[in-house]
Amino acid sequence: MAPFVRRQYGDELYDVMRELKRLCDPSGMLNPGVLLNDDPTVHLRQLKAVPTVDPELDACVECGYCEPVCPTADVTTTPRQRIVLQRQIALATAAGDEERRRELTTDYEYAAVDSCAADSLCVTACPVGIDTGAAMKRLRAERHGPLAQRTARAAARHWKGAVAGVRVGLSAAHAVPTPVTRAATGVIRGLGASELVPLWSDDMPRAGAPRPAPRSAPDAQAVFFAACVGSLFAPEDGPAGGSAAAFLRLCDLAGVPLVVPATAGLCCGTPWQSKGYPAGHREMAERTLAALWTASDEGRLPIVCDASSCTHGLAQLTAALAEEDQARYRDLRFVDSVTFTAEHLLPALPEPRRLGSLALHPTCSTVHLGGIEDLRAVARAVADTVTVPDSWGCCAFAGDRGLLHPEVTAGATAAQAAEINQRGYDAYVSCNRTCEMGMSRATGQPYRHVLQVLVEAVEPLA
Q1: pLDDT by residue (tens digit) across 45-67?
Q2: Residue 257 and residue 222: Cα distance in Å, rounded?
Q3: Cα–Cα distances in Å, from 134 out to 70, 121, 291, 374, 388?
Q4: pLDDT tens across 323-354, in order?
Q5: How far is CA 262 from CA 3, 180, 292, in A?
Q6: What does R_g of the chain's alpha carbons equal in angstroms?
Q7: Fewer CB in a 10 Å sphere around the end CB: N or C, the chain?
């Protein structure tokens, strides 16, 4: 663009630019020749090489619109930088520069692939619709060998036992002094399990309550699929059962009957999709969708989930199936519990006892589900003032990223935590258990699911 700046603005304004540049940068060190250049043919030389690296990433024009919404922007890399680094690796490979290729590739593993929250907020800001988070998931899948893929598929087949094992492990870890547990997890991570085992911290939740017992109702209005994350991690405080128990109680108070299928061993599939295990993702999709197809009367009833990321994961499950199997489940409708509450429960619930103020953290999954206004509506039902920080963004906890790489969540939440802690609130809420964990860690305040606060506000007093 440099040769055309004078033509665009005219001689007088161009001379003003020159003078400002001289005053601010007399040595010409900053962006030399990028906007102000005396060579009228510079656009025909020094052309930027843009090699093809990925069919879905090649459309990137490096505009940077994605960078403000990326939770890792201040810690590792942004979506734009992840794409540019792939191009630089390709250029080094083409040039035979093995040292540079090796150095970039080694750094890329953590700085781009491992640290990515894969929340796909980048696609909401990208003018050409690039989902860099999805690309990072593909790269994670490519580096897993056949043994790892088979192990992940086995975990999907035996998910009931896996969840029970994690719950037992959490209970056992809390029974041991924190320094011992932290040292043990540190050793295990040092042996190469840094992407599987979190470093223990004082704020690690205890094991949650088991998933709700099955129930049936001939006049049911919905199917309830309790997220397994609620049985893994107990809520910050309040009654046992967390968001699942809160939603069931709200339905009882509103007189809305539900079907609750046997969900032990079933999952939304997000852990496999996010970590890059397509075989395990498909295994879980086949099992979970078959169960929900039956429970929902072949799609007649909507399926409600109590964790926003899991609702989003359920909505993506069909894509994990073979094409010939996808048509069968296209009639399934997945609804987040917050949206179902706003649309069907609030009008039938008793008048809530109101709080003065409430701090609200929307999740990136809520954005993808289009449920921000429903979340605000439920929050406004229990509080006179609802505050979403101006600096709100993805917390980057991303299921397990905040456990495995706490520095990513710390960087993503720093501005929001500082804004939140400028004053006190009567309640701190979100709509996803791991996001609540991330915000509690960042702010030191007890974040809970908004439905837990709502059920406390409408529950009849003793």
Answers
A1: 878 888 999 999 999 999 999 99
A2: 7
A3: 14, 11, 27, 27, 27
A4: 888 988 989 999 999 999 999 999 999 999 99
A5: 68, 37, 10
A6: 25
A7: C
